[in-house]
Amino acid sequence: MRFREIVAESRGVTARTAGDTYVNASNPNDVLTIVDINAIPSDKPAYNSVEELDQAIAAAIPSNSKIVNDNNKTSATRAAIIATVTNAQNQTEYHVRYIQAIPPQGVHGLWKTIKGYNYSKGMEKESLPIKPADILADENYRNANELAAAIVAGVKRNTNDQQLIDAVEQSVKMAQAGTPGPIKNAAPYFNVLQKYAGEYLGPLGLISGGFTGGDTVKMMQQLQIDTLAGSRVKFPQDKAQKLIDSVIQTAGGIEIQVSSKISTAGGAASSLAGVAEQIDDNLQQRYPVATGIIKAFAEKDQVNGPLSVALQLGILDQQDLQALASLSRSSKNIDDLTTENLKSLARNQGVKLDTAEKQASYRVFFHTMTAIVNRVVATLNQDQTFVSAMQDALNNNQYVQILTKGRVAGNDIFLDYYTKFPAVFKGKPQLYNKTYMSTGIKGRLGFKLK
Predict the structure, then answer these.
(1) Count of CB atoms situated within 10 Å of the CB of 99
(2) Predicted structure pTM score
(3) How large is the average pLDDT for residues 273-294?
């Protein structure tokens, strides 16, 4: 077993991502697919009582939903982890794990496995080289046959795993033929095929003419075309096109921007730059403050964007900004911070320096930035006006959304593709920090749909 797999296994359920699967210990056809995982409360270690926790769970889970308790509450229970999954019938379930409190270092390791199910290690394989960037490393338009050949050639170029090559070749043929499957012996690769390969298999299915589900017909009517057969596809390499995964060019030269995702999952965190691109004069007039914040995150750098928003929200003042600006970037001593507010923020932000590498990389500046960003995230995620502005901006688009809907049947899988037009971004947008940490800043702040 690889080191990465050992680490992921030891961290348990909360280390999983959308599309990961758990298989019933006694029935291999009973498969749960992870949609999302959240811990509550999100802004403090614990609620004040079991009753307050129960109220929070009731607010977090839609009424009349199927709830499965992974363990029993005790008198000391004050927090919980909620795993949103879909079952083999594509129905949503909410599995709840009760805990006493959320530790400063986070919840990883507190929930080993979903009760009665085993994590499907073979379906993880996140490092397999079949992401679009691995396979299609240029922006050339390709017709269906050219795209199919490029996909297969790219996989063969990147791996000697014959079972994976066979699974991709079958998936390509099925997409061109307009049939979901079965894709034989592909279950070990279900996660990556659905999550990553769907980004090129979906467009391939559409331009081959066999998949017309969802809003495809409505989209063609609006574009005044009779078919997508004969179209070509390219995959932008510039990730500044944040919400766009590919572009379909019809035979008549019309370009259709495509956003791809798994039908049952929120997917990876998206950049706010894509949201900012959808802001028009109408949205600015309706949400002047919120749209200004979105643009600050999108247009300013990774330090000044969050700091300007924190100043606007009253989390920081000018003295705090001056103190950060004068702080030595090599400092490892919180006492080097010269305002009590910054010291308090940093001290209340837990860190986990459990390796020599992390200890060597730790810096007070990064630690403090993480604390500031997390406070900003918690504040804005509770601001309904900001959330509404995000929702309206996301849905102010003319994208087509291609969704991949997969399921496992024994050792085989099925992959279906359908569209939404305009792209519909359902759910509650929530800012999501996975890039600011005490050892460095790895990228911009993102968001997910909850």
Answers:
(1) 18
(2) 0.53
(3) 87
